[in-house]
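Attaching the record inline, Q. Sequence:
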Amino acid sequence: MKIETLVVTMGRKDRSLEKEMNLQGDAVIGNQCGENSAWRFQEEGKDITYLNTDEVGVGKNRNKVLEHSTGDLCILADDDMRFVDGYPAIALRAFQECPKADILVFNLIEKEPARQVNHHYKRLDIFNYARYGAARIAFKRESVMQAQIRFSLLFGGGAKYGAGEDTIFLRDCLQKKLQVYAAPYALAHLDQGESSSWKAGHRKFFFDKGAAYACLHPSLYFVFDALFLARHWKEYPCELSAKDAFALMRRGSRDYKQHYG
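Structure, as predicted:
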């Protein structure tokens, strides 16, 4: 069974990323760097492809590497991850232990744990999928391709709305009746050295968060806007009041509904 790592990055001029991320086995790397070219290497029994483009947007980048992938199992990755030794074998083992899964969501190793940790296999559904992101997803390529699932071009870095493409991807998988499970293994460490602008607590953050909820919950987005602030307001220190943040979320929700809903 062929296992392939699908990486998205920006501005790469050389092959240093492979060592930085400890990539093992075959990989397709989407590199948005202002030019259109491809680098292909075969060495030590592995195939490495860089797809260099002048496009912008993480959704476009993820779709490009997905469409050029050939693996039976694909592992999604961001360039701030460093994989553990033997991670392709860990991913294969997990799919063998959970054969019903079309998609597995793995743990991430963090110095300061901030994400959901899986302790056993658990099926994900519409009520609990939203706590996971793309940096921990692996999937059976045939299942995703046959369901014609792609990443949103409206959400994520470089798109109109700043993040959420990974959550929408999982939602779409569930809507297409793919089976999604959490797995109790970690494939990679996450570099927490840089703070995410998505979590910076600025005005656009709340506007984009509201838009994401309108996409994910077309009929109840206003409830999720309120619940988000009630549960997480203290995690996003900023100069805005909670009332102003809620107003921005409502504005983002209405903007998405007006133009795309």
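Residues 242-259 form the longest helix (18 residues). Strands lie at 3-10, 26-32, 37-43, 46-53, 73-78, 81-83, 103-109, 122-123, 137-140, 180-190.

More tomorrow.
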